[in-house]
């Protein structure tokens, strides 16, 4: 790649981003006109747009869209619906990324409770909630609280492997998170290896 194409690359990426942003905003407008601003289909578009803004560090623009999407889903489905849990987790991650831990934590715990009630404690959706909460606890130096949550998340994703024969997409990230947490807890390499041994064999075929 020559210097000219290197210089052009950020400009091209910006063009693609701006086009994607316009496309998502247009999708939102179409859905809002067609179905009204309180329809759950609108909340999906809002979340998509908010996620793109968050991923490009435009948090102040993303947050009101996430809150609006969450309010739509709460009104449409009730406070205990799994769609609401998704919105709670999305908003909690944004709050965490903007260092508002005290606001993020109760939302994560609420999302976890919703998914546990809806899917049972051994569902991958619950594992994702556990991992999110554990990471927040780890980031706020509450390692002892985080450890059993990460262990349970990894155990649940291992169960997915045993039941389906396939590696869950979040398994490797959860595995690395748990290894990192154990290291922060000052476990020796041999202790870490022993703790991870039940999860290190890869996908197992279902019976």
Structure description:
With 207 residues, this protein is an all-alpha fold. Helices cover 79% and strands 0% of the residues. The longest helix is centred in the first third of the chain and has 33 residues, at 3-35. It starts with a helix and ends in an 11-residue tail after the last helix.
What's the structural blueprint in terms of helices and strands?
Layout: H1 3-35, H2 40-55, H3 59-77, H4 82-97, H5 101-119, H6 124-139, H7 143-164, H8 171-184, H9 189-196
Helix pairs in contact: 1-2, 2-3, 3-4, 4-5, 5-6, 6-7, 7-8
Q: Notable features of this structure?
A:
207 residues, mainly alpha, Serine Threonine Protein Phosphatase 5, Tetratricopeptide repeat, 2 domains
**CATH architecture grouping of the largest domain:** Alpha Horseshoe
Strand fraction equals under 5%
Helix content class: over 70%
CATH superfamily of the largest domain: Tetratricopeptide repeat domain
Order of helices and strands: HHHHHHHHH
Alpha-beta classification: mainly alpha
Number of domains: 2
Mean pLDDT over the residues: 84
What value does the Rg take, in angstroms?
20 Å
Can you tell me the CATH class of the largest domain?
A: Mainly Alpha
Number of helices: 9
Amino-to-carboxy terminus distance? 51 Å
Biggest sheet features: none
Overall shape: globular
What do we call the CATH topology of the largest domain? Serine Threonine Protein Phosphatase 5, Tetratricopeptide repeat
Q: Low-confidence runs (pLDDT<50, min 5 residues)?
A: 1-13, 203-207
Strand runs, count: 0
């Amino acid at each position: 790649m020559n210097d000219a194409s290197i210089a052009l690359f950020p400009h091209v990426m910006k063009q693609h981003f701006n086009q994607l942003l316009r496309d998502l905003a247009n999708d939102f407008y179409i859905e809002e006109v067609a179905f009204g601003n309180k329809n759950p289909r609108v909340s999906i578009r809002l979340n998509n747009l908010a996620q793109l803004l968050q991923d490009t560090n435009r948090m102040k623009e993303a947050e009101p869209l996430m809150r609006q999407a969450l309010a739509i889903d709460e009104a449409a489905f009730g406070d205990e619906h799994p769609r609401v849990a998704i919105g709670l987790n999305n908003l909690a991650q944004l709050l965490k990324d903007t260092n508002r831990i005290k606001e993020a934590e109760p939302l994560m715990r609420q999302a976890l409770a919703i998914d546990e009630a809806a899917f049972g404690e051994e569902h991958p959706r619950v594992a994702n909630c556990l991992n999110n909460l554990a990471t927040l606890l780890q980031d706020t130096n509450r390692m002892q609280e985080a450890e059993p949550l990460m262990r349970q998340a990894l155990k649940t994703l291992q169960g997915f492997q045993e039941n389906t024969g396939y590696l869950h997409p979040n398994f490797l990230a959860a595995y690395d998170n748990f290894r990192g947490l154990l290291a922060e807890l000052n476990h020796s390499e041999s202790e870490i290896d022993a703790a991870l041994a039940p999860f290190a064999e890869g996908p197992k075929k279902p019976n």
